[in-house]
């Protein structure tokens, strides 16, 4: 261990001696290197000092330039602010002057208002005194008038109102009478021209159909054959046709009863063929009814085509033609609905020609206006609405649809011209003599109701319904009713007739007031 330590010690001494020898050999080089490094260091320090001076100079220059720029900018901002302040000061000064003027003006107005208030108070006091004087004068005048006229204030007021009312009514009656007379004359002139032309060119045949059809038999023995054993034949006929057969004591006749006119006509034709053939049994009945029903469809089509041909309309939809054919077997008074439609079509055409409208379209509307009656027993609703839906379904023009829908509508202010024409033509066709029938009892009751209504008016002594209910003549008492009141009574009678009674066409109301005196010379 001691030897090892000795070796280490010796090694360290050797290293130290070697290092000292190395230093002794390179001392001169180290000194030269040190001097060079020192010179470089001094040079670097000198350059750094020079650079520092330069940087400081540049920073100083930049600071001076920045300060100069800031000073210029500040001066410009200050100048701008001073200018704005000067403007604001001028504006404020102007406003102050304006406010001073307004204040002066308000003060002047306030003074004027005070003077006017004083003046108004004075005037108000003067007017109060005048009103008191007027009231005293009116009271004195009223008392004087009441004393002179022997009437109270309320009675005098009523008398004045009554006289003014009578005068106003008289003036209104004269004006209304003149307007009505002018309108009536002009309307009669135009209507007379158009209706006379229509009546001259249109004529219709009448039919007498109802809900029953009478079938003639060759003999009473045929009744038994139609009834059949235990009624099997009559039941087969009723089941196949949908009608009721009425067999009573009427000799050589059977009655077919049904509300459906097409079924009734099919049953009529089938029964006549069975009677002519003589072979009457259920199988033969079914066969005959089916054959007649098939043939009847063709007859219906031909009826519609004939109506379209008669009115000159050739482009109707086949279904509309078929529905037209059905209308031949539905009656309206003394006409079939198909005849009525053809008649209305001709009248519409005449009116359209007179008014410068499309004649063909007017005839189309007239022919189709009641088309809804062909199916109204199968469809809910009014026939005009049903007909309009049918026309729309088969692509009829909008004017035609509107006319069908509204031909019973009373308010036609904004309707198409064709709608007005078909409504007028429909009324002309329905209400001409012979077109509609009326039960005798209903007719008599209507006349009696008219007389009772007219006799209920004050001053009416007696009334007469003449011209089959087309005119009413009433006689008034000359002592109880003046001439001016007769006009009012006439208007009131016409108004109540329109509101309370139903009648075809129009009713002329004539009120007569006449005084007659007689004396004998002896």
Please tell me about this protein's structure:
The chain is mainly alpha-helical and 522 residues long. It is 70% helix and 7% strand. Helix 4 runs parallel beside helix 6. It is flat, with a radius of gyration of 60 Å. The chain starts with a helix and ends in a 10-residue tail after the last strand.
Contiguous uncertain segments of 5+ residues: 200-209
User: What topology, given as strand order, has the largest sheet?
Assistant: 1-3-2
Protein structure class: mainly alpha
Instruction: Quote the average pLDDT.
Output: 79
User: Quaternary state, please?
Assistant: single chain
Largest sheet: 3 strands, antiparallel
Q: Based on DSSP secondary structure assignment, what is the total number of beta strands?
A: 8
Helix tally equals: 14
- What separation lies between the terminal Cα atoms? 209 Å
| Element-by-element helix/strand order | HHEHHEEHHHEEHHHHHHEEHE
* Shape call: flat
Question: Roughly what percent helix?
Answer: over 70%
Query: Radius of gyration from the CA trace?
Result: 60 Å
> In percent terms, what proportion of residues is strand?
5-15%
Describe the structure using short key phrases:
522 residues, 14 helices, 3-stranded mixed β-sheet, mainly alpha, 8 strands, 3-stranded antiparallel β-sheet
Quick synopsis:
The protein is mainly alpha-helical and 522 residues long. 70% of the residues lie in helices and 7% in strands.
